[in-house]
Design a protein that fits this description.
- By secondary structure, this protein is of the alpha+beta class.
- The protein has helices spanning 18-28, 82-91, and strands at residues 8-15, 32-36, 45-50, 53-60, 72-78, 95-103, 107-113, 119-125.
Length: 128
């Protein structure tokens, strides 16, 4: 999925009931869902498509790393340089909640809070 600076690149549902979420979105919005193996005994990631195009993901958050985190949607906005965007976020009064990290099949991601406190993901995608 090619996006440009400023585009919404991806939305991802973080849930403790991925099967229930899958069933809901297949039924209500007509998404088709493909399971993608994550390896290391992790549950599969679900890629949701509409009209043949990937539009969102569903991620299982039952692992201990996610204890205390409620189910929610994450939005990722395309930035050309996630590291520079994080530096600028700090400079203008925002926060970097999760430092930039690489996701093999997606790109370089960070989670930030803008100066108003709203949390969003930033991504420099592998595929531009």
């Amino acid at each position: 999925m090619a996006t440009q600076q400023g585009d919404i690149h991806w939305s991802e549902l973080m849930t403790r009931d991925p099967a229930g979420a899958r069933a809901y979105f297949e039924e209500i919005v007509g998404w088709s869902v493909e399971e993608v193996p994550m390896g290391d005994g992790e549950p599969p990631y679900m890629v949701c498509s509409a009209n043949g195009k990937p539009v969102a993901g569903i991620m299982d958050i039952n692992a201990p790393d996610f204890d205390g985190i409620s189910p929610h949607w994450d939005t990722y906005i395309h930035v050309d340089d996630v590291d520079a965007a994080c530096a600028k976020t700090l400079e203008i009064g925002g926060q970097v909640i999760r430092q930039p990290f690489d996701v093999e099949m997606a790109g370089r991601i960070a989670i930030v809070a803008d100066p108003t406190g709203s949390v969003v993901g930033l991504i420099s995608p592998n595929n531009g």
